[in-house]
């Protein structure tokens, strides 16, 4: 027995050493980096890209370089709450005030509370909150969990298939291994038609992380509860907590987080909280990164 344990432990150490060697190989394969790109590419970041591409250095390099290009154009770290606050007025997507059992940040999505028509701004709002969820990850934790409540969802409130595909592609390609699990709670039967199309846009790893939960299906409920303390889980998801989204209070949190993000990325950002977070200062288009951001 002790021999088997020793061999297993030895194998794990070898795998870990090999992985670290491959991470170094990926870093060595990259062109010289500076500014935000350099600070984005922490070892933890490189490990996530390697994991997403099954530890293939060439494929990981291509994926990472495409992300760096996307980030240089889209600039997700520059989005500020006042730019997307209108999207959050109904609480259709927001960061929960609790973590899962593994300390992961939790995003709550309620697509039935859609309140706007601009697909571009809806996506910008989602990207802002993903960046915010990453900003609020505890040390040593790289992933987040999603809870999706389908109350009030209809085909008329769903996004077009093309937009769903484009969104999924960005999340998979530019936020690899950020999603640990996504629970879709009690989706209506009509959602099945939408899902039958959308699921083909998911890669195999992401597909395995999407779990359907039905209140009358004991196994699915138990799986979800294995990730969350019941006293933290909102009643809308079968838990004991009362879910109350207060847009004004959430805006105050986001404005404070914008300051934290600006400091993290080295922006000279003189952010001022204004009322409910619908307005604020301009963000400098370029800045020197003085502190390493979360990867």
From TrEMBL:
Q: Provide the protein name.
A: Random slug protein 5 isoform X2
**Top-level division of the source organism's lineage:** Eukaryota
> Could you tell me which species this protein originates from?
Herrania umbratica
| CRAL-TRIO domain boundaries | 81-245
One molecular function GO term is: phosphatidylinositol transfer activity
Biased composition, Polar residues: where in the chain? 1-22
Tell me the InterPro entries matching this sequence.
CRAL-TRIO_dom, CRAL-TRIO_dom_sf, CRAL/TRIO_N_dom, CRAL/TRIO_N_dom_sf, PI_Transfer_CRAL-TRIO
Cite the residue spans of the region called Disordered: 1-25
List the lineage, top down: Eukaryota, Viridiplantae, Streptophyta, Embryophyta, Tracheophyta
Pfam families the record matches: CRAL_TRIO, CRAL_TRIO_N
């Amino acid at each position: 027995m002790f021999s088997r344990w020793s061999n297993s432990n030895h194998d794990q150490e070898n795998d870990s050493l090999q992985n670290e060697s491959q991470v170094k190989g990926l870093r060595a394969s990259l062109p010289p980096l500076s500014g935000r790109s350099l600070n984005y590419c922490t070892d933890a970041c490189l490990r996530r890209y390697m994991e997403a591409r099954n530890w293939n250095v060439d494929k990981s390099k291509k994926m990472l370089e495409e992300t760096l290009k996307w980030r240089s154009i889209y600039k997700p770290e520059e989005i500020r709450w006042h730019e997307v606050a209108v999207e959050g007025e109904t609480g259709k997507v927001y960061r929960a005030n609790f973590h899962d059992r593994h300390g992961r940040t939790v995003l709550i999505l309620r697509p039935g509370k859609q309140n706007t028509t601009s697909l571009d701004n809806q996506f910008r709002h989602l990207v802002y909150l993903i960046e915010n969820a990453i900003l609020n990850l505890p040390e040593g934790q790289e992933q987040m969990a999603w809870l999706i409540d389908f109350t009030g969802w209809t085909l008329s409130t769903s996004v077009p298939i093309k937009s769903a595909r484009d969104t999924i592609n960005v999340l998979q390609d530019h936020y690899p291994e950020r999603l640990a699990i996504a629970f879709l709670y009690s989706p209506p039967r009509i959602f099945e038609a939408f899902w039958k199309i959308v699921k083909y846009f998911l890669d195999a790893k992401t597909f395995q992380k999407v779990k359907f939960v039905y209140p009358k299906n004991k196994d699915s409920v138990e799986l979800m509860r294995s990730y969350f303390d019941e006293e933290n889980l909102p009643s809308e998801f079968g838990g004991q907590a009362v879910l109350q989204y207060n847009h004004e209070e959430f805006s105050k949190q986001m404005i404070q987080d914008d300051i934290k993000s600006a400091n993290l990325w080295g922006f000279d950002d003189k952010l001022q909280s204004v009322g409910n977070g619908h307005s604020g200062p301009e963000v400098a288009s370029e800045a020197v990164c003085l502190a390493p951001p979360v990867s």
